[in-house]
Every structure is written in C-alpha cells, then in structure tokens.
C-alpha cells in the first residue's frame, strides 16, 4: 500500500511496505517554490513527460490521475512500445480540464519510484489515483487500442484528442483518378498488414517521409485495399500488397512491387526511401498502362510456379508455357 498526502506548503509521503530506509519522508517548500512547481508541471503537460526520483512525487500530486510508464534502457520491448507512448502522450497530455496525465520513468535509474510502484519487469504501465492512492497495473497485451480502453475505464469522462495530430498522408476515395495525383506517391495497403499497424500516427515512417524536406515536392496518399474498391488498383493491375505507385507528370508513372508475387514483400522504410530516391532516374518509368501490362505478361516468377489465389489479375505465362524440367519432376513425383 502506498499513501501520498499533501498539506500545503508541505508534502508528506508515507511509504508502507517499500524497500526504503525511512517510513516517512517530508519535503518542506516555500509558497514561491510551490507556485514554481505548479508552473513546471503545467509546462510539462503540453508534451511527453519524463520524471525521476526527485520529480515524480510532485507530479503525481498535481493531478487526479496519472498513467506511469516504467521502462529501462536497452529493453527491446520498451523500444517497441516507445512510439505508442509518445502518441498517447500527444493525445492526452495538455488537456487542461482532464485531470489526467501520462508520464514515464526509467525504472532502472530511479529505484525509489520503481520500489514505490513495485515494478519488477519492463515495460510496465500503472495508473495512479490521487484521491484514493490506488495503483492499478495494466495487465493486458500492450496494444494501443487496449491502453486507450484501459485509460477510459480508469479515468471517468476522458477521451483522446485526435485533433492534435493531422496526418500528412490522406486516405484516397475509391473513385480517385490519376489526373488528380500529379507528383503523388500512392501506397496500396491495409492497416492490418505487418509494419502498417501504426499507420496514421506521427511515428509511422510514411508520416516521417511526408514531413521530410528531402521529399517536399512529393505528395503522399494511401489506398486501403480492404476498405474500399479502388479504380486505381484495377486500372494499374495492382496485385501485390503493400506496394506503391508514383504518379509523375504527363501520365508517366513508376511502380514498386505492384505485380510481384514475393510473399515476403513488406514495403519497409528503407525500400520505400530507396524508391523515392530513384525517381530522379529515367529508368523504370512507364508511359501508359499498356506498357505495364506487357511487362507483367512477359514476366515469369521463378520462386514457385503459381500466383497466390486472388492476387493474379494478369494471366500468367506459366499456364501456356510449362517448364520441361518442372514437368519431369512432377511426372516422377511419388506421394
């Protein structure tokens, strides 16, 4: 059990069943120092807040509810969660009337806070209720939506403010035509795909690319292939996902993995940036869709001899052009 009591201008922190040498630690501060503390806490609330052993008590006492994220350096799972923490902080912190804040503490370096909240693994999320001194541990899988639900259940009336972040990568309607997409990179994807779960958040590599000065002349957009039927997807024979098309000027375009049958294609950040950098080169451009269809028809995938069901929109040459060596293997195959 942990009890934190505030009596102006004195902070009294009672530690019960904690590994500290004293059961009670009292901080005496002047009225000016108290006002300064309130000012500092208010300033922190506008962004991600990192606390330590010297600051976490004052921060906990400054508001009604605090979600504390305990992490440690070189923790793989902490590194994976850090982007979600930053996004959650953006959505919740700085709402003056909410009485709620999200903070983080390096548990390995701040043992007093770590001991007070009884943290024995990382990352750990704990909700502190100031009025009752109750501490509730988040015990579900660390999914963004699950944490939002947890916050909503613990803090009455709280809602994330999604207006704080405006994506620079809009979702295209299904009837978008290429004439509206000059100098635009279009990604064909779904948020359910590996590497795209956090699309639409400031930490996603598409948002970073769209905000980069290196690509200030490029517009970015996406098509959710499972949410809508895209005319672009059909016209440009897009049969592999995620993939990309860059629409240049005068009807010219360049494609990335749109007709590949490689099941390991994930369109990761480095591949996408390499594609963007290749736009300066003259090779790889198509003048029209007929050229693209001809290339697809003349291509032959050598990894396996069939396309994945539902992903083949252009007839494969394999249907009419069997490999004799492959046929011989089939003929002598014994099951």
From TrEMBL:
GO terms for biological process: protein folding. Coiled coil: none annotated. One of its GO terms (molecular function) is protein disulfide isomerase activity. This is Thioredoxin domain-containing protein. Residues 49-151 form the Thioredoxin domain. CDD domains: PDI_a_family (cd02961). InterPro entries: PDI (IPR051063), Thioredoxin-like_sf (IPR036249), Thioredoxin_domain (IPR013766). Keywords: Membrane, Transmembrane, Transmembrane helix. It comes from Meyerozyma guilliermondii (strain ATCC 6260 / CBS 566 / DSM 6381 / JCM 1539 / NBRC 10279 / NRRL Y-324).
